[in-house]
């Protein structure tokens, strides 16, 4: 229930006989409360802050079971039932809030990459393969900070990619131009730090999705083909072969 146009005051049941009075005014308020026809009291609630969440709150505790009604300047505002349900223990403070950086991690200062890494894949050896819209794909070694250029047999921007069970990266599709995709299947091996080409798909795919399923096969869906048409029939990659689904 609201008082005026923009200043709601709310009464929220917390637990036991405890309630929270919320104030969205930009000035402090004093409200009174009554439980049934007996217990009465008053609560002062500070002004709401300017930033979100733009409310201030004050907890009150009643002693009498029954309906709790609050008033502002004698006008009834809102009522809540008081069930006197026991309060649960307060939740523990999350460990990450006070964990040292050795446990929770920390950020470094920004540093420059050779390309804009639109696609990124974590390799089994801890290095990171990245492909951009322009420039040569790179393999970054977080341990040393070094980048290694790895030219591709096809332009793999806007392709779909996933990790195979043997540790290779499978990349489906690629870029001819905006909304026009290649039919290529391309593999990257972290062991040899090199690319190889596989059997192409039936149609090109620009921005498809590649998903490994339980038996290790890869379902390749959506994207746009060489003519820019949406590809509605998925294909399934299975140990190097492809079939339409």
Describe this structure in words.
The protein is mostly beta strands and 245 residues long. Helix content is 2%, strand content 42%. It contains one helix and 22 strands. It has one helix at residues 101-104, and strands at 2-3, 7-15, 18-23, 29-35, 39-45, 56-61, 66-72, 75-82, 119-122, 128-131, 138-140, 147-149, 160-163, 169-172, 175-177, 180-181, 185-189, 194-197, 209-212, 218-221, 235-238, 241-244. The strands form six sheets. A four-stranded antiparallel beta sheet has the order 1-2-3-6, with no helix packed on it. It has a four-stranded antiparallel beta sheet with strand order 5-4-7-8, with no helix packed on it. A four-stranded antiparallel beta sheet has the order 9-10-11-12, with no helix packed on it. The model is unreliable at 1-7 (pLDDT under 50).
SSE map:
Blueprint: E1 2-3, E2 7-15, E3 18-23, E4 29-35, E5 39-45, E6 56-61, E7 66-72, E8 75-82, H1 101-104, E9 119-122, E10 128-131, E11 138-140, E12 147-149, E13 160-163, E14 169-172, E15 175-177, E16 180-181, E17 185-189, E18 194-197, E19 209-212, E20 218-221, E21 235-238, E22 241-244
Keyword list:
4-stranded antiparallel beta sheet, 245 residues, 2% helix, mainly beta, disordered N terminus
Would you list the SSEs in sequence order as H and E?
EEEEEEEEHEEEEEEEEEEEEEE
* Main sheet record: 4 strands, antiparallel
Which class do the helix and strand fractions yield?
Answer: mainly beta
- Taking the alpha carbons of the first and last residues, their distance comes to 56 Å
């Amino acid at each position: 229930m609201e008082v005026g146009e923009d200043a709601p005051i709310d009464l929220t049941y917390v637990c036991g006989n405890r309630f929270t009075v919320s104030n969205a005014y930009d000035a402090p308020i004093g409200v009174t409360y009554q439980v049934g026809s007996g217990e009465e009291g008053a609560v002062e609630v500070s002004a709401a802050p300017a930033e979100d969440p733009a409310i201030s709150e004050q907890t009150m505790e009643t002693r009498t079971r029954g309906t709790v009604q609050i008033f502002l300047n004698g006008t009834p505002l809102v009522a809540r039932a008081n069930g006197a349900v026991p309060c649960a223990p307060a939740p523990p403070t999350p460990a990450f809030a006070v964990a040292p950086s050795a446990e929770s991690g920390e950020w470094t200062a920004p540093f420059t990459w050779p390309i804009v890494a639109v696609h990124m894949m974590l390799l089994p050896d801890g290095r990171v393969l990245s492909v951009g819209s322009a420039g040569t794909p790179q393999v970054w070694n977080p341990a040393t900070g070094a980048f290694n250029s790895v030219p591709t047999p096809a332009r793999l921007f806007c392709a779909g990619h996933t990790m195979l069970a043997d540790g290779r990266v499978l990349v489906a599709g690629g870029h001819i131009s905006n909304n026009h995709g290649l039919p290529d299947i391309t593999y990257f091996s972290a062991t040899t730090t090199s690319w190889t080409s596989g059997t192409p798909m039936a149609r090109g795919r620009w921005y498809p999705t590649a998903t490994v399923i339980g038996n290790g096969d890869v379902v390749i869906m959506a994207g746009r083909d060489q003519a820019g048409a949406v590809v509605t029939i998925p294909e399934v990659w299975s140990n190097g072969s492809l079939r339409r689904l």
